[in-house]
Design goal:
Blueprint lengths: L1 E2 L42 E2 L2 E2 H8 L3 E5 H14 L4 E5 L6 H9 L3 E4 L2 H10 L6 E3 L6 H10 L3 E4 L2 H11 L5 E8 L21 E2 L4 H10 L4 E7 L10 H21 L1 E2 L2 E3 L17 H19 L5 E4 L3 H4 L3 E13 L2 E6 L8 H5 L6 E3 L7 E7 L8 E9 L7 E5 L20 E5 L2 E6 L4 H7 L4
Parallel strand pairs: 1-12, 4-21, 5-6, 5-14, 6-7, 7-8, 8-9, 9-10, 9-11, 11-13, 13-14, 16-18
Antiparallel strand pairs: 2-3, 4-15, 15-16, 15-20, 17-20, 18-19, 21-22
Amino acid sequence: MTTVHEPATPPTPTPTPAPKPKPKPKPAGGSVWPASSTEPARGDLAVGGVPLAEIADRFGTPVYVLDEAEVRARCRTYRETFPDADVLYAAKAFLCRAMAHWTAEEGLGLDVCSAGELELAVTTGFPPERIVLHGNAKSPRDLDTALRLGVGRIVIDSPGEIARLAAAVGPDGHQKVMVRVVPGVSAGGHEKIRTGTDDQKFGLPIADGYAAHAIARILGQPQLQLTGLHCHLGSQITSVRPYLVAIRRMVGLMSRLHEQHGLVLPEIDLGGGHGIAYCPGDQVLDLTALARGVRTELAEACGRAGLPVPRLLIEPGRAIVGPAGVALYRVLSVKHTGRDVFVAVDGGMSDNPRPALYGVRYAPRLIGRRSTAGPARVTVVGRHCEAGDILATGAELPDDVRPGDLLAVPVAGAYHLSMASGYNLVGRPPVVAVRDGLARLLVRRESLEDVRSRDVGL
């Protein structure tokens, strides 16, 4: 019998104690705003003790504001809710050196999708053995960097990776791997972010035996140590049930592997995709219910299969950093056309492509001045040369909104800067962290000089 006894990851270090949090003030604007949000004066909004209008004046707009205390609190919530699991922050949601540092201090692991994400994290001091490398099409540079830096796990996504990775490791080398399987579960907030079904580019389907065949090939490579199965169902999942179905199907595969190869895998990774609210009243995933349901289902499924319960890994990204971010914009123009009102701001799809890609809804609000005007339904649009450059449809703003006003967009911490582009060469916005009344720059604004320095033509 082949049995792997090594733990899923090295023992999690004791997190560095963060400063004792101050009593949280009453949140302003509902659950979509960071818990530290307050209204120090009518029309003002502060996050982390710093008025957002002051941040806009000091750093310019557009600008992303990130509440450090909120990020850390969400990391701790995951660790407390899943005490027997390894929690890995999904770096694709947002990564900078400070973010890597915060998650490391809070005792989380990290999952990355490229050599760039990996190198930034490791050069910041993130322990490479607590990092998992993903990707459906890993480049030679991705694999070489992972092996050079000593990444903890590499998730194999296709049969062709097996021989390439084994060759890169070499006959005397050793690398722990997982296999991304497709459990045939449809879940997620939009068809473009559903990745648990058989008709998309990620992973190896369970249903047709493709995953089992690839695993048999991995077992023939002694330098590759298979530690477990991995799946990721999609994003913005608000129900526990898809995760339970995935567990049953993955444990079924583990049972067949045990029967065929005497293999006992010590890990199972359920990925992330935990849904959060972007507008007040949006449905969210209940983490307590998820933890309870996953723990029960995993124990029962393994009991029926006669297998030991593997260690659980989860990979939240958006759910940790999304609600901690706020984007600030300056209104450039207000246009009334028939029954439509278009409020144009100094950013747009280059700093937040998600509404154009997925039709995501946001709830911006006016900040920095008091308005007594009644509410009006408006469309907040960006400055780019695309009709689809829309940041918020049907947004409720004061009827007297005018050029020069400031708008704050909540839940802007995830997939904004990480998906930002150079469209129209307007430059990507900076990231400013706030905590205990202080604001500091984490990522500077992309300048025209940055653009010129990359352009080596003429």
